[in-house]
Amino acid sequence: MLSEKYENQVFAEKVKILEGTLTFENCIFEKGVYIKGDNKRYFLVGEVVRAVFNSCAFHSKGDDPCVALWTRAQGEFVGCKMFSEDYVPVRIDTGSHGVFRDCSIDYPVKRCGVAIMGASSGEFENCRFCHFGEDPAKVEPVYFDAHDKEKTRFENCSFCKK
Q: 55 — phi, psi (to 5°)?
């Protein structure tokens, strides 16, 4: 299994994590990160792709999230900042799970901050969700598929407008 650690690096292109367990500390992801797990038919076959991020910053423009967890991927984010000018900053999809502690998630007013879809879940503790822009449209900070809401938990999170 691939296991690596990265510290104090700036990634100018989108980072794709497709195997192993990786750790990032004090890194900047200028075009986001895409973590894709095992796409085998049965959930208990194959290894879980996992990444841990401590004090990292994620940015995105266009139609890509800052952070994408896909197909049984797992991600843990502690003290991180996510900012998207145009799109949903965090997307958790297809049986993936994300843990967010002490994170800041800034998102445009016409989008949500986090999209949780396809039998996925998340844990959010001491996180700040903040939308920005002039559009008065009411958009919820987190979007859920119909089946995913009960698996996600929020503890001591705050919501604001910039």
A: 55, 45
Report the alpha-carbon distance of residue 86 to residue 71 in Å, rounded.
Answer: 24
Spatial separation of the C-alpha atoms in residues 68 and 90, rounded to whole Å: 6
Whole-number Å distance between alpha carbons of 153 and 125: 8
DSSP letter for 110, please.
T
The two structure tokens encoding residue 138: 């009411």
The Cα 13–Cα 127 span in angstroms is 26
For residue 155, report the phi and psi dihedrals to the nearest 5 degrees: -135, 120
What's residue 1's pLDDT?
42
Q: For 100-151, write each residue's pLDDT tens digit.
A: 999 999 998 778 899 999 889 999 999 999 988 766 566 778 888 856 677 8
Token pair in block for residue 119: 């039998």
